[in-house]
């Protein structure tokens, strides 16, 4: 038992680093009384060290802590994405003027952010229903508090309240679905659940109901229709740094969890091939359900975004639409589909964080999030406005940006999987998305600034971070083979 525990701990270094970082932040916040963001730099260092330890796990494939947690290429890929998103969000936070009036509570902020990172890393590597739920709640509780961190603002308190209410309800429904699934199969391990289901001659309706209930919780985290109602208000009311991590990292973690849960639990191993289409266990119709949700997310997200004036609300509905595009890869039931999702997520991280970062820079300078107030910014802040244009063009999926490559691969994977109607909806809604993205560009470049509005100056660190986010979008639009190969090599999921 001791040897098993020590061996498991040796594979748990990335999470241990995050836990130690959290503890150091708490102690540093108590001891160091300074206006400088010491705790922010501590968290940044912890994330970098954690990322390095994740790289050492590349190529491994094993189960630890009595099959509660795994280290496999799939988990390594997603954890690297989460750490990368976390590093960018910490850098954003160090520059955010929105958080300046709460400098005495910065230690709490980074402590909660560390807890959220820990929960998300566990979400993508858990293979036991109990551990999945614990990771889910660790992520949720931290994010509830972070959304309402700027509590002096009315919309922040409102956003936090709505997030808690919606989150508690969806979490409760998910937990009830998990209890039904455990009671029906007599197992908590995902692979054991798969074995139990394949040994049964019939699948009753109650099992499909339990899967639907579990999907409520996962769909809430992904912000996919019809579990998206919380996203626009929460995104608008939360600090923009937290909005960014919810839109990118939280969605990435939940999608990784959803893929592992459905792929390991409900795929017929007798129909599993290296390159062909996988078969679901007979009587469980989750692919049709996810396909319908993907279509609704693309339609509702893009159509509703047309009416938004607040940049964060617009990006919220945009992220709902992108959740639909990502779910297309899940329903394909082939390694090609999963690889296309992972490629999409990698590029989505840069283009979405980039859009939020420019929105934060503009908010810091002109104290507004209104798209109407962006008029003339192309002349006042040319570099930032051009960068925002490229990020939005990439989110639309126009060449030669990384967003085009991401959508091309996920659309082609869906076509090869026979989901022609879903690709048709995706294509139409992509055209619709062009209208609200280009509206931002039109306001920045097609209007002259007022005579009393001068050039907006940004410091060198801001421009450096902006270029770090911008260059991959342009590079991956032309040369994307290494990322695609990395995604294909990371498709392997433990238990499959």
What does this 3D model show about the protein?
- The chain is built from 20 helices and two strands.
- The chain has about 500 residues and is mainly α.
- The protein has a domain at about 285-495.
- It has a two-stranded antiparallel sheet.
- β1 and β2 form a beta hairpin.
- It is globular, with a radius of gyration of 22 Å.
- The two termini are about 25 Å apart.
- The model has no long low-confidence stretch (mean pLDDT about 85).
Give, in order, the helices and strands.
HHHEEHHHHHHHHHHHHHHHHH
Roughly how many Å apart are the termini?
27 Å
Helical run tally: 20
Number of strands: 2
Percent of residues in beta strands? under 5%
* Arithmetic mean of pLDDT: 84
Which spans have pLDDT < 50 for at least 5 consecutive residues? none
The SS-based structural class is: mainly alpha
Specify the helix fraction band.
over 70%
Strand arrangement in the largest pleated sheet: 1-2
Rg, rounded, reads: 22 Å
Broad shape: globular
